[in-house]
């Protein structure tokens, strides 16, 4: 018998909405990303459904007609999972499940699922487990328990409610336990970080799949797992890197994403501490991605959330080898120039021009502009170093990095 070696992908259907905040094009981009997320989680997207809806239906998120359409498709094609791009309330999730009679996920639960799949170390697993239980807790409520309890009285005190209460207690206990476990690990990690001594600390941050690990491998000549899936990295890797004559610590960490579940931000506290305690951030951007400006905004939002937006930052625009723009024909006087028509040179003249030279354009894969990258990082690290250790200056006289390389 021939063994089946192909990975079995689950059939998945995506659902998104179009409204004032997200027009058709935006909605498509979000669904593209959701498709990539589904694929990373092991799902093959067989159809997408979108609905123009100003205010989501409080009970079922989308309208009845659209729901019927999805129901028919799902049952005709034996689809097991429907993924919504937006966060569903526990009640909505339950209602939709009843109607569609299949597994219902939203963006948050999908991301949590990927994290769960990819968590390697017991530390990462504990963090993910905590986030999952926090997501689960409000969803343990029976749909009507809230109302029932308010009404109380005869016939409303059933075993159902008690069961839910017991379940909830178990989950709460588990959450408390996991939090304690993480606290202990956090303390250990803080000590470890403290033991790393006086070296300047640099952290790679950025949207998922932009090439942080690849860049880490290139500059530290290490071998960090990189692949074309989302959230390849969950644990932080720290390497000592020497550029010119200057040693510093470089950490590669979990990538960010639009609407990163808050439960994850919270439980990945220690992983993110690496970013919080860094002296310098290298914000890596995939400039070949049509949505890269929005990615930057998402990352900045999370940096803000973890109080890191004031840190010295170098913007590293990666994947220039893959950058493409749409040319406007010279005799085309109608098409208005937008972001997708910019050449790299034109991009440099936009807001990037106001970054005081703290914007770099590289390719970690084809190693373009790596000398400029090294020189820039070297200068920034050196500046932090000599400010911190003014008497140590003589150890590191300024040098031109490229002359020192191999
Ligand atoms: N064309 C091109 N591809 C690149 C470049 N840098 C990285 N990649 C590819 O982009 C994909 C993602 O790279 P990673 O290094 O895993 O990205 P990451 O930012 O660490 O991703 P997460 O850990 O998931 O957050 C891989 O397939 C890399 O080969 C580049 O400069 N050019
Ligand atoms: Mg990575």
Automatic annotation (TrEMBL):
Major subcellular location class: cytoplasm
Sequence ranges assigned to domain Hflx-type G in this UniProt record: 200-385
Domain of life: Bacteria
Keyword Metal-binding: yes
Keywords: Cytoplasm, GTP-binding, Magnesium, Metal-binding, Nucleotide-binding
InterPro entries in alphabetical order: G_HFLX_dom, GTP-bd, GTP-bd_M, GTPase_HflX, GTPase_HflX_N, GTPase_HflX_N_sf, P-loop_NTPase, Small_GTP-bd
Entry annotated with the keyword Manganese: no
UniProt-annotated location(s): Cytoplasm
UniProt cross-references to CDD domains, sorted A to Z: HflX
Quaternary structure annotation from Swiss-Prot or TrEMBL: Monomer. Associates with the 50S ribosomal subunit.
Function (record text): GTPase that associates with the 50S ribosomal subunit and may have a role during protein synthesis or ribosome biogenesis.
Full protein name: GTPase HflX
The species this protein was found in: Neptunitalea lumnitzerae
């Amino acid at each position: 018998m021939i063994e089946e070696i192909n990975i079995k992908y689950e059939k998945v259907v995506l659902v998104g909405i179009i409204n004032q905040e997200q027009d058709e094009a935006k909605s498509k981009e979000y669904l593209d990303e959701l498709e990539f997320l589904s694929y990373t989680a092991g799902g093959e997207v067989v159809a997408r459904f979108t609905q123009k809806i100003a205010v989501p239906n409080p009970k079922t998120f989308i309208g009845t007609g659209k729901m019927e359409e999805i129901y028919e498709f799902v049952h005709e094609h034996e689809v097991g999972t429907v993924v919504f791009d937006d966060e569903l309330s526990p009640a909505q999730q339950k209602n939709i499940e009843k109607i569609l009679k299949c597994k219902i996920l939203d963006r948050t639960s999908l991301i949590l699922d990927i994290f769960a799949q990819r968590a390697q170390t017991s530390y990462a697993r504990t963090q993910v487990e905590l986030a999952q239980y926090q997501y689960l807790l409000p969803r343990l409520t029976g749909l009507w328990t809230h109302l029932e309890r308010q009404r109380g009285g005869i016939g409303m005190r059933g075993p159902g409610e008690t069961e839910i209460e017991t379940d909830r207690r178990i989950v709460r206990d588990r959450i408390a336990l996991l939090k304690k476990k993480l606290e202990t690990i956090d303390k250990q990690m803080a000590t470890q970080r403290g033991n790393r001594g006086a070296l300047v600390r640099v952290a790679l941050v950025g949207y998922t799949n932009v090439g942080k690990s690849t860049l880490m491998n290139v500059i530290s000549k290490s071998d960090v797992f990189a692949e074309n899936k989302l959230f390849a990295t969950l644990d932080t890797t720290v390497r000592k890197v020497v550029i010119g004559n200057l040693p510093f610590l470089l950490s590669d960490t979990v990538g960010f994403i639009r609407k990163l579940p808050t439960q994850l931000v919270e439980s990945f506290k220690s992983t993110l501490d690496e970013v919080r305690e860094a002296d310098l951030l290298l914000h890596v951007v995939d400039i070949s991605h049509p949505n890269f400006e929005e990615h930057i905004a998402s990352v900045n939002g999370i940096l803000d959330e973890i109080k890191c937006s004031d840190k010295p930052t170098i913007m590293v625009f990666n994947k220039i080898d893959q950058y493409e723009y749409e040319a406007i024909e010279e005799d085309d006087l109608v098409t208005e120039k937008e972001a997708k028509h910019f050449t790299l040179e034109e991009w440099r003249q936009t807001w990037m021009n106001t970054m005081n030279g703290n914007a770099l354009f590289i390719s970690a894969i084809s190693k373009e502009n790596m000398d400029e990258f090294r020189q820039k990082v070297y200068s920034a690290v050196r500046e932090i170093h000599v400010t911190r250790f003014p008497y140590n200056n003589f150890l590191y006289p300024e040098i031109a990095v490229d002359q020192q390389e191999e």
